[in-house]
Amino acid sequence: MGDDAAIVQAARVSYGAGTRKVREDRALIRYLLRHRHTTPFEMCELKLHIKAPIFVARQWLRHRTASVNEYSARYSRLDREFYVPDADHLQSVHEEQIGRQRASSSGMDDLFGSTEAVGERLALATQSELARAALPVNYYTQFYWKIDLHNLLHFLSLRADAHAQYEIRAYADVILDKIVMSWVPATYQPSATMRWTPLRSPQAGSPWSSACWPARRSIRRVAGSPSASGAS
């Protein structure tokens, strides 16, 4: 719901003026973002159907600025689908955080090999509300997520950042480059390319800091790479 036109319309309501030329609209949106006039961006809302590993969903749902409804494993059986990073991805994380011996395929099998067996046992369980307690957090869950554009930009400023964990960053990149870009292109352009220069020193964690929007990059997809879908 809503788009770039809704943003500028809300910003100009005090003057009784509607949407003007595209060039003027882009300049106004850039001004609003730079000066942190965020209310007009709340005129736009996005609803997504997300399918993600449970550990990614737990990170995602820490952002308490959206309306959420998650699939219930109490009433329905989860798909027997789970996320397993490939050996190269494990190696890159291993080298970055520990810097020791190479992560081997056998090590990955030891780490994730029991997941499928757990799924098979859960499929045979009759009391799903208790059986779900044994689910590994790399199993996929699903949820609907509705958020306004102001809070979405804050979410993306944190989760599309180079320091975010790869798995949730892959989702954030899809949302930013595939959904936001086509939904609100005038808002996307400054968000993706500007290095913010705040009027004053931002508060810690402010989404409008000068380092807020990292340079766009190509994210390598791994086996079982997550994706976001269902924009409406």
UniProtKB/TrEMBL annotation:
<dbReference type="InterPro" id="IPR003669">
    <property type="entry name" value="Thymidylate_synthase_ThyX"/>
</dbReference>
<dbReference type="Pfam" id="PF02511">
    <property type="entry name" value="Thy1"/>
</dbReference>
<dbReference type="InterPro" id="IPR036098">
    <property type="entry name" value="Thymidylate_synthase_ThyX_sf"/>
</dbReference>
<protein>
    <submittedName>
        <fullName>Flavin-dependent thymidylate synthase</fullName>
    </submittedName>
</protein>
<dbReference type="GO" id="GO:0004799">
    <property type="term" value="F:thymidylate synthase activity"/>
</dbReference>
<dbReference type="GO" id="GO:0006231">
    <property type="term" value="P:dTMP biosynthetic process"/>
</dbReference>
<dbReference type="GO" id="GO:0070402">
    <property type="term" value="F:NADPH binding"/>
</dbReference>
<dbReference type="GO" id="GO:0050660">
    <property type="term" value="F:flavin adenine dinucleotide binding"/>
</dbReference>
<dbReference type="GO" id="GO:0050797">
    <property type="term" value="F:thymidylate synthase (FAD) activity"/>
</dbReference>
